[in-house]
Amino acid sequence: MMKFIATITVLFLITGCAVVPPKDYTKFNAINPRSILIVPVVNNSAEVTAADYFLSTVTIPLAEQGYYVFPVNLVKRLLEDDGLSDADLVHSSPTERLANLFGSDAVLYVVINQWDAKYMVLSTQVTVDLNYVIKEATAGDTIWQHHQKMVYVPDNSSSGNPLADLIIMAISAAVTKAAPNYVPLARQANDLTFKYPGDGVPPGPYANKRNTTF
Description:
7 helices, 7 strands, globular
């Protein structure tokens, strides 16, 4: 029996050949945050569920970097009780106000620029494009920011039968378009975003120093 094996190929998108300068951690290290508040995500994509799905992926990688992270569902509920039910309204509010509600040292803002699946007949390209900003709690100054864009498409291995391969690829593309799985890609984007050394955030006070590479 002929079997079809589909694997996911992750494409890291790099604009041009420009060398990205290393991040300046002077402000971040001066603040030395111990706790980070993750506020509701601004969703600029056409996918209405993107913000909620993304929030389910962002807490763990940041906590694993050694920071206390407030439960995102609890944060969302308390902000709603304080009159901040809309993510755009939250992002436009003073950082000090948000931080004081929870006693956090810093606030993480995330904007979803793109969260979609593009159907291309024989393949479906799924994309997430995200902006991350961390601001300190008092003056609201930005102490770290990052942009991450990632794409994956099904990598359809050949069965040796061209006609069968075309049929399988068309079915795979249609299924991916109908029910694209953004969560694994969002998790990968977060892992890469917060990874350190690199462009991520330095290990926090609760990091396991034995498993942290400097």
